[in-house]
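JOB MANIFEST
job_type = single_chain_structure
chain_count = 1
residues = 318
[input]
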Amino acid sequence: MTQRVIVVGAGVIGLSCAVRLAEAGFDAHVLARELPLETTSAVAGALWFPYRAEPAADVARWGRVTLEELLRLAVAEEEAGVLVRDGVLLHHTPPQRPSWADAVSDLTSLHPVTDPAPGYRHGLAARLPLVDMGRYLPWLQARLERAGGTVTRMPLPALPERGVVVNATGVAARAVAADPLVHPVRGQVVVLENPGLDRWLVDDEETPDGRLVYVLPRTDTVVVGGCAVEDDWDPVPDPDLAQAVLARATEVEPRLRGARVLAHRVGLRPARSAVRLETTHSDEGTVVHCYGHGGAGVTLSWGCADEVLEQVRAATGH
C-alpha cells in the first residue's frame, strides 16, 4: 500500500520535498494557506547564494546538491526558468573567500575582480544559477502533479496530528510548530522591465538599517532590492524604501535608469538560528520538520528535499 505523506507549505521547500516524495513512490499532497505564487518564495530574487542560513557545514552540503540540480535543470528543462548568469559579489574592501566556496569549487569558480561597479573597488566574480520564480514554482507544481501529487489551498491552525507530515511552513512555523526561534526578516523588491541586462550584482553587507543592494536580471524582468529588516511582519510595500532601492540599484547599474516599474513586492524570510531539519514522533504520527532557511530557500531546496525523503523513508520503512 502506498504511504501517504502530507506536506504543509507550498513554497519552494514544500514543493521540492513533495516532488522528491512523489517521484520516489509516496502518495504526496501539499496543503497550504498560500498557493505557490502567493508565497515568499515567489518574491525571492532567487540567485543561488547561501544567505542568512546556518549551520555552515549543512548549508554547504545542501547548497552543493541544489547547485548541481539547478545547473542540470538549466540545460535539461528550459521551461523550469533556471538561467545561469555571470555576476559579481560586490565588496568595498578585498573580500574573504565565502565559507561555502570550497564545497562547490568544481561547479563554479570565484575569482577576484576590481572596480566591478560604480562605488565598489572589489568583488568576486562567479557564474551561478538565477531562477525565475514566476516560471519555476508553477513548473514544480506541474512536476508534482505529473507524479500523482496535488496542491490544495487549506489554511491549517496547526499541523495534522495523524500520519506522516512534512512541515515546510516557513515563517508560519513560529505558530504552527510553536517555535519561537523562527522570526521574519522582511525583504522588499522592485520588479523592472529588463533594459538588456544579463549580469547580476549583489552586495549582501547590510547597512545599520538593514539595506541591501542586488540587481538580478531574468529574461524580460530585473528584480532589484532590497532590505533585511528583523522581526517586521508588514506585508505592504513601503514607497519610500522602494525609491531608495531604485536609487541605489541605479547607482550600481546605470542602465536601469528609466526602466519601467512592473511591481513592488514584499516577502518575509523565515529566519532561525539554524535550519530545522529533523523528525519527531508521537503516538499518532510522524513530523519531518524542514524550515528556517532564512534567505536561502531556493539555494538549499533540493539538498533539503533529499534529506527529507531519507527521513520519511527511515520513519516509514518504505
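[summary]
The first strand starts at residue 4 and ends at 8.
The chain is about 25% helix and 35% strand.
exit_status = 0
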